[in-house]
Amino acid sequence: MESDNKRSEKWILVKGFLKTLRPQIALFVLHSMIFGVVYFLTNQESRIFWTAFQITFALFMLSIAIQAYFYMKKVERAKRIEQEHEKQTAPNEFISQVYEANYFALIDQMRSKKRKDMEKQSDLMDYFSLWIHQIKTPVSAMSLILQSQKEKTAAHKKLEQELIYLNDYIHLALNYLKLEETGKEIEIESVDVDNILKTVVKKYAILFIYNKIKLDFEPTGLVVQSDRKWIEVLIEQLLSNSLKYTKQGTIRLYSRGGQQLIIEDTGSGISPSDLPKIFEKGYTGLNGRLHEKSTGIGLFISRKITHRLNIILNIESELNVGTKAIIDFSSEDAVLFD
């Protein structure tokens, strides 16, 4: 019985070794056929072919013998290692120890990388926050210089408008950084939406006047429990968008159903293919690509604000007709998302 097991083991080893030789055997047969065809086509004597074949075959068998020697050395080494492992510890226990060691090593690497990424992100946020606050000083100086000039030329009016856009971009970047800081608290209070609308309209009065856009403002009477600062940022962003994409016509501010604020314009509108993607970060769509002032960040930030305040923002639009931004304050849940 023991001899049968040995014969079976030897046969398994032979089969394993022959499998490793399959490519070499196939290559040897192919070369022999090529040589035979060449000798046949060139009308050479057969003894030349058989002499070359015998020499090649002898070298091939020598190569197989050398490979068989090293193959058996590997088999013996593998058996020796297996026996040592069986003496020291059970196989399953040994594998478990290896997996456990690798697992904890990977956990340490992941924590280290996560810590470095957080430190890098914190440094980057601090730098941009500092830069944004520093850039506000020269912008304020430019604004004062423009206000001190009495003559209102076309160039002066253009500079005033561009300065408003520049301020918007600075505040947009600052608000983006604040939204990324999830630990920021939200101050809930009674917010008079009409007062915020008046403040925002006053800020953009120059754009309404110089671009000859009509404002239709119907007092809403809306008073909501929310964060005043973020509600103002939200309305600013939506009204700024309407002003960017409305070359002529009217922008309406009104309420509907007692809980909805609507900002409606007669601007260029949004194509049906772009509408599902407008809240994605960096997405500008067709109009955005044609409009040099589009960043693709405004509506992304607007959606983040509404999620944080647990209110709903919907955009309805028709290309070349206009856009309607609907802020719905009717949510009854007092849950605030961060």
From TrEMBL:
Residues 130-333 form the Histidine kinase domain. One of its GO terms (biological process) is cellular response to phosphate starvation. It is found in: Cell membrane. One of its GO terms (cellular component) is plasma membrane. Gene3D superfamilies: Histidine kinase-like ATPase, C-terminal domain (3.30.565.10). Its EC number is 2.7.13.3. One of its GO terms (molecular function) is phosphoprotein phosphatase activity. InterPro entries: BphY/WalK/GraS-like, HATPase_C_sf, HATPase_dom, His_kinase_dom. It catalyses: ATP + protein L-histidine = ADP + protein N-phospho-L-histidine. Its main location: membrane. It is a multi-pass membrane protein. The chain crosses the membrane at residues 21-42, 48-71. Keywords: Cell membrane, Kinase, Membrane, Transferase, Transmembrane, Transmembrane helix, Two-component regulatory system. This is histidine kinase. It comes from Alkalibacterium olivapovliticus.
